[in-house]
Amino acid sequence: MKRISVAVLAATGMVGQRYASMLSTHPYFDLIEVTGQSSAGKRYGEAAWTGLPLSDKVRNLKVKPTEPSALSANLVFSPLPTDVAQTLEPKLAKAGFKVITDASPHRMEPDVPLMIPEVNPEHLALVELQRKKRHWDGFLVATPNCTAAGLALLLKPLHDSFRLKRVIVSTMQAVSGAGYPGVPSLDIIDNVIPYIKDEEDKVESEPRKILGSFAGSRIDSAKFQVSAMVHRVATTDGHLESIYVETEERFVPEKVEKAFRDFRAEPQKLKLPTAPKQPIIVSSAPDRPQPKLDRNAGSVPGMSVVVGRIRKGLDDRSGRMTFLSHNTVRGAAGSTILTAELMFRKGLLS
Amino acid sequence: MKRISVAVLAATGMVGQRYASMLSTHPYFDLIEVTGQSSAGKRYGEAAWTGLPLSDKVRNLKVKPTEPSALSANLVFSPLPTDVAQTLEPKLAKAGFKVITDASPHRMEPDVPLMIPEVNPEHLALVELQRKKRHWDGFLVATPNCTAAGLALLLKPLHDSFRLKRVIVSTMQAVSGAGYPGVPSLDIIDNVIPYIKDEEDKVESEPRKILGSFAGSRIDSAKFQVSAMVHRVATTDGHLESIYVETEERFVPEKVEKAFRDFRAEPQKLKLPTAPKQPIIVSSAPDRPQPKLDRNAGSVPGMSVVVGRIRKGLDDRSGRMTFLSHNTVRGAAGSTILTAELMFRKGLLS
Amino acid sequence: MKRISVAVLAATGMVGQRYASMLSTHPYFDLIEVTGQSSAGKRYGEAAWTGLPLSDKVRNLKVKPTEPSALSANLVFSPLPTDVAQTLEPKLAKAGFKVITDASPHRMEPDVPLMIPEVNPEHLALVELQRKKRHWDGFLVATPNCTAAGLALLLKPLHDSFRLKRVIVSTMQAVSGAGYPGVPSLDIIDNVIPYIKDEEDKVESEPRKILGSFAGSRIDSAKFQVSAMVHRVATTDGHLESIYVETEERFVPEKVEKAFRDFRAEPQKLKLPTAPKQPIIVSSAPDRPQPKLDRNAGSVPGMSVVVGRIRKGLDDRSGRMTFLSHNTVRGAAGSTILTAELMFRKGLLS
Amino acid sequence: MKRISVAVLAATGMVGQRYASMLSTHPYFDLIEVTGQSSAGKRYGEAAWTGLPLSDKVRNLKVKPTEPSALSANLVFSPLPTDVAQTLEPKLAKAGFKVITDASPHRMEPDVPLMIPEVNPEHLALVELQRKKRHWDGFLVATPNCTAAGLALLLKPLHDSFRLKRVIVSTMQAVSGAGYPGVPSLDIIDNVIPYIKDEEDKVESEPRKILGSFAGSRIDSAKFQVSAMVHRVATTDGHLESIYVETEERFVPEKVEKAFRDFRAEPQKLKLPTAPKQPIIVSSAPDRPQPKLDRNAGSVPGMSVVVGRIRKGLDDRSGRMTFLSHNTVRGAAGSTILTAELMFRKGLLS
Q: If you count Cβ atoms within 10 Å of the first and of the last residue's Cβ in chain B, which end, N or C, has fewer?
C-alpha cells in the first residue's frame, strides 16, 4: 500500500503537535511537511514543546512558512487559527490541495462535510458536489468543534434508538481547548470561568449538522434542539459534560447503556488505524468519568469517549449522564486523522 | 438590648470557624462557648487554623467537649457531622437548648423549619408546633444544604413571578463543601469529580420544602421539579451552578433580571446585622459570576448570591443562567446566623 | 494637611489596580489620573478587572493615554512595562514630574534611590544629587523587584545584628508576579517552572544596593553575596522563599527571632498610613508561613512580611528560615506608596 | 530462566499500585500475591484506583490480608505504612521472607543496606552479615526516602569527581509523596506548605549512608553535610529540588555536566529490565526540568532523573542546579524493583 504524503499546518501549536505525534508513524500517511509562523526555519524537534512523542524523522523536519507555495504534500491537515483559516483554506483547496481542517470558519457551509467518521461517513459524498460547484481541484472537509465532536459521537446511538428532542448540556472544559498561551493562570487558579467566546453557538449547531440526514444533494439538520452552557475549569485535557436529554422514546437506562456499548461503525468495521475498538465506553462507577483518569481511554488513547452516571431524568422520556471526551484527540487531531483514514480507504484521496 | 449567650459546636471544623469569626463581635449574640473533639481543653485561638479573623475574646475561649452537660448557652449553632447530629441535636433540644443546625439528618422532618430567612420566614411558626408535639423545652431549626441554600434564595423571586415547572442544575462545587480534610489533593488537581455522596438528593428535595407553602400546620412542598448533577472542582470556596429552568410564565430575561434585582425580604426590612442589602446581585458581564471574583459579593461579604448570563432557553417558557453562592457563608454559617437574628427580633429566642 | 495630586500609570494592569485600590482613599494623596493603553477613554471602573475595592471617585476616573502631555498630577506612580519605562520615565522626570517607579530599567543607576522605607530612608538624599546632575525639575525614585523588596526588608535586621556573608535563596513565586496575562495555565497546572527571565540577577544585586551605605554622595553596596534560584508555582499571590544564610556573628535562632520581632523603623515611628505596625512577623508554627494563610498579614494587609522555621544551619554561623512577602503589595504598590508617604512627610514632594 | 514468585504488601496504596503495574509483566518476577487492609477479599482490579495499567492476571488476584501466614511468595515488596512496617518487616524476615522495603523505620540500622543500585551495589554484602547477626532465614533491604533516593543518585558522580563538602537543598514535592488520601486539597490549592513531617531529617541523613563506603563489615557515612528545606506544592508526581553544593574540587559546569551524562553503573552494564539506559539526563534548556514535562523521562519512564540549569555558585568551588526525580518510581517502587533485579542477577534471591 503506497502511503500518501501529508502536511500539518500550524504544526507548532498545541493541536499541531498532537497531529505530528499521531502521524509520526502511520501506515497510510507520510508526514513530510510541517509549517509554523515564528518558528519557520527551525528543526521541528526544537519548535515543539508539549513533550508528546515524535519520530526522529518528524523531529528533523524543517518548519516551513504557512504558504501554499511552500507545500507539496497531497493532503493537508489544518489546525489553523480562525482568521487565517478563513481565507487560506479555500485558497489551498482551489490550488488543488486536499484539506481537512479543525478550524471553525467553514464548518457550517452547506457543501462542506462536518465529519465524525463513526457518525456520518455518508456525508463525504458532499466532497464531489463541492468540487463541482466551487471548481476546485482540491477539497475542504471539516472536523467539528472540540466539544461538539465528542458530543455528536455520543448522541448518535442515542438519537438512533431513542429519538432526541432536546439536549441540555453544561460543560467543564480543559484549558488546552484554548490553545497556547490560552487561558492565563491568574484567571483559572481557584476559579471557574463560565464563558468561552462563540463556543455555545458551535455546540448548539454543529451536532445537528453532523447527525443530519444526507439526501443526495444536501444535509438536512437533525431536528433536536441543543442548549449549551460552557465553563472553563482548571484541567489540562479532557472536556467533561453533564447532559440532560429529552427523548421521544422512553429513556430506559439499561437500554441506553446497551446502545452505547454496542455502538460500532464503519471505522471499526474497516479497522482504521486510529479507530478505537469501542467508540463509547460506559463506566458503571458512581464517580466516573473523570478527566484525569479517563481522558486517555480506549484502544487508541483518547479516541474513545466515556459516559457514566446514566440515570433517568424528571420523567420517563428524559435522562441524564456524565460524559468525557479528549478535546485535542477525539475533539481535534484524532478525529481528523480518522476522517482522512476513512477517505483513504474509500479512494477519496487518490 | 441584652445580648443572648450562644455556643458553637464543632467549632474547630471549617464551618465552625466561619461561625466563630462571624460571631466574634455581634450585636445580638455573645459567643461564650465553643466545642471540639480532639482539641477540647485547648485555647480556641490555637485550635483554629483557617486564618479567619477572630476577636481576642473568642480566641481565648477554652474548647469544651461536645456534650450537653458542658454547655450553658441559650442558643446553640450546630455544624456537627451528620452521624453525631443525628442523635445529639434532639437530645440538646429536649434538654432545653435552642438549636439551629447546618447538619442534614433532621432537615426534611415535617415539623422542622428549613430556613432561608429571605425566603420562608413564616415557616418559623412550625417551632411552636414542634415543641408541643415533641414536648421539648428547646427546639430544632435547620439550615439547608450548602448548594440548596443559595439555590432556594435565587429561585424565590423566579418562582413568585414566573412559576417554576422544572429546574435542571449542574453544579461546580468548591472543596470547602466537603469540610476538612475533605477532598484529597490527588483527586482534584487537574481533575473534576462528577459525584458527591447524597448531594443530588438534597439539592432536588430541599428547595421544594423551603419554597413550600405553610398552611398553618404543615408545609406543602412547592410543585416544581429539580434535577441536579453535581461536580467537585478545584476551587476553595463558592459553588457555581449552571441552571436551566422551565416556567409557566414567559421567561423574559429583562423581567427576570428585574425580579432578581428588586428582590428584598424581611431580613432587609429589619436591617438584620447579617442581611445583605441586596440578596441577589445581577451581573451583566458576559463571563460572570466567577468563584474567585464574586464569592465575597454583597454588603455582608458572602451573603449575597450572584447571577449572570441570564438568557432565554430553548423556547419562550424556559431560561438559563449562571449562579454563584458562597457555600460556607450563605450556604452554612451566614444563613444560620441570619435565621437566629430573625428569631431574635421576632422574640423567639427569649 | 493639603493632599497631593497623584497619577497611576498603566493603571489597568495588575499592579496598577493594586495602586488604585490602595489610593482610593488616602490621607496624603488624591488620585486624579489613571492611564492605560487599550482602555484609554473608558471609565476606570470598567477597565479594572481584579475585583479589588475602589472608591466611587476612582471608579469614575476616565482612563487617559500614557503620555506626559495628558498628565497634570504632581506625583506619578509608575508600574509601567520595562520597555516603556526605559524611555518614558526619564522623559517624565525631565518634564518636572516626581516619579516613583516599580519598573526595573533604572533601579541600578547610581543616582536613583532604590527604596524600602524601613531599610534605607537615608538614600532619599540621592534625589537632590540626581536633580542637579541630570538637570531635572522632577525626579526618579525606584522600588525594588517584587522578590528583592521583601527580601531586603528581612535581611535588614539580620545584617545589622549578625553581619551577612552569604544568602542562598530558593523562591516559589506566585503567578501574579508575571502580570497579566502572564503565565499560561497550561504551563503551571500540575507543574513548577524553574525559571523567570532576568529575575535571579535582580534578586542577587538589588538587596545589596538597598542595604548599601550612603556616604554622602554615593551608595556603597553591602558586601554580602546572594545566590538566587527562582521558581514559579501555582499560587496567585505571595512569594515564598527558603533562605540559607551565612553570618559573621553566631546565628542563634532565639536572637534572630528577637531581632526580627523588635525591628521598627522610620515609617513606624512616623506612623505612615501604609506602614505596618510590625514589619516582620515571626511565626512559631512548624508549617508557616504559607502563601494562602499569611500573604495578607499585618496591620496593613500585605505590608508585613512573615518569617518562620528559623533554625540553625550546618554550622554555628549559618541559619535557615522560610519567608513570605506579598509580591504586589510589599513587593510593588505598597512599598512604593510607603516611599511616597515618607517623602511627603520629609517635605520632598512639595 | 526461572521466575521468582513475589508479593506486594499494601498493594492498594499509591506506591503499591505502582509496584503492581511495574510487575504486571516482568522477566524475573512473578507477582502472585497482593495484600491490603480494608480491601482484603476483593479482586485487585476492583481495589486499585490509580488507573495505572495492570495485566489481566494481576487484575484478577484476590487481595489477601497483610499477614505472614497468608503469604507464600519468596520475595516481598513492602511499601507499608511506617508503624506497621516497624514490627511486621522484621517478623517477615525472621520467618524467612526476603523483604525489600520502602518504609522508613529500618533504613538507618547499621546492618540494613539502603540501596540505590547505581550508587552502592557493594552494600548488598551487608545482607549476609545481617542474616548471621540476626539469625534470620530471610533478610531486610531498604529503599531510601522518595526525595533522598533521587538525590543520592545525582550526588554519586558529583561526589566521585568533585568531592562534596556541603549540599543545600530546597525541595518542591508532589502530593503523591504523602500517599492517599494524603494532602487535603484545601491545604494546597493556591498554596505551598513549607513542612513535611520528618522529611528533612531523612534527606539530610540518608544520602550520606547511601554514598558511604563499605569497609567489609560496616558502612562509613560519607563526610559531606546536607541541609534540607522541604516544601509541598500542587503537583501530582515528581519532586523538584534546587540544589546548591560546595565541593573540594573546582566546580566547572561543563565538567559537571559531562560527569552526569557519562554516568553509568552496574544496573546499566547488566541491562537490568528496570535500569534506564541513562540514569541522569542533563537538560540544556533554560527552564527545565519541570515536573509535568520531565517526570517520565528515560528509557524506563520515571527511572531517569533530570538535571538542568547547572551553573557556578558564589565562588569557584560551589555550584547550583535544578533537579527532578519521579517520587513514586525512582523514589520508591522503581528503585526497589531495580534492587531486586540486581540481587536476582547476583544470585542473592535463590
A: N
Rg (CA), chain A: 19
Cβ-based contacts of D14 with chain B (< 8 Å): 186
Residues D150, D59: one domain?
no
The contact set of A with C (CB < 8 A) is 14, 175-176, 180-190, 234-236
- Same domain? For C246 and C268 the reply is yes
| Residue A350 domain flag | no
Cα B120 to Cα C190: distance, rounded to the nearest angstrom: 45
The pLDDT value given to residue A343 = 98
Residues D116 and D211 in one domain: no
- Inter-chain touch C51–B189, beta carbons under 8 Å: no
Question: What is the pairing mode between strands A318-325 and A239-247?
Answer: antiparallel
Mutation target among B187, B233, B312 for the A interface, most CBs of A within 10 A:
B233
Residue B129 shares a structural domain with residue B223: no
CB B81 within 8 A of CB B103: yes
Smallest Cβ–Cβ distance between D194 and the set C225, C244, C309 belongs to C309
Q: Residue B317: inside a domain, yes or no?
A: yes
pTM across the whole model: 0.96
What the block records as the C-alpha cell of A188 is: 483559572
List CB contacts (< 8 A) between A193 and chain C: none
pLDDT tens digits for range A29-58: 999 999 998 899 999 999 998 889 999 999
Query: ∠ at Cα D128 (D125, D129), nearest 5°?
Result: 95
Choice among A270-274, C51-55, C56-60, D92-96 with the minimum mean pLDDT? C51-55
Q: What are C's interface residues with B at a Cβ cutoff of 8 A?
A: 51, 189-190, 292-294
Strands D318-325 and C4-8: unpaired
| CA dihedral sign, ordered A46, A52, A56, A61 | negative
Tell me the pLDDT of chain C averaged across its residues.
Answer: 97
Between CA D249 and CA D243 the distance in angstroms is 17
- Number of domain units in chain D: 2
In a domain, D350, yes or no: no
Nearest-CA distance D193 → chain C (Å): 6
Buried b (16+ CB within 10 A) or exposed e, C255-281: ebbebbeebebbbbebebbbbbebbbb
Is B233 within 8 Å of A236 when comparing Cβ atoms?
Answer: no
Question: Same domain for A166 and A108?
Answer: no
> What average pLDDT does range D126-152 have in this prediction?
97
Exposed e or buried b per residue across B13-52, where buried means at least 16 C-beta atoms within 10 angstroms of its C-beta:
bbbbbbbbbbbbebebbbbbbbbbeebbeeebeebbebee
B350 in a domain, yes or no?
no
Q: How confident is the model over B276-300, as pLDDT tens digits? A: 999 999 999 999 999 999 999 999 9
Q: Do B183 and D186 touch (CB under 8 A)?
A: yes
pLDDT lower than 50: segments of chain B: none
**Interface test with chain C among A185, A193, A292, by most C beta carbons within 10 Å:** A185
For residues A238 and A174, what is the distance between their CA atoms, to the nearest angstrom?
6
For residue B277, give how far its alpha carbon lies from the nearest alpha carbon of chain A (Å): 26
Domain residue limits at D207: 146-326
Closest A-chain CA to C179: A186
Residue with cell 552502592: D120
Do B45 and B138 reside in the same domain of the chain? yes
- Catalytically annotated residue among D26, D123, D146, D326: D146
Residue in B with minimal Cα distance to D191: B236
Q: Is C239 in the active site? A: yes
Options A26, A106, A123, A146, the catalytic residue: A146
Cα distances (Å, whole numbers) of residue A241 to A54, A174, A291, A334, B171: 31, 11, 10, 19, 11
Contacts for C262 with CB less than 8 Å, ≥ 6 apart: C157
Look up D146 and say whether it is catalytic: yes
Three cell numbers written together for C253: 535562632
Clarify whether residues D107 and D173 are in a common domain.
no
C101 in the same domain as C36: yes
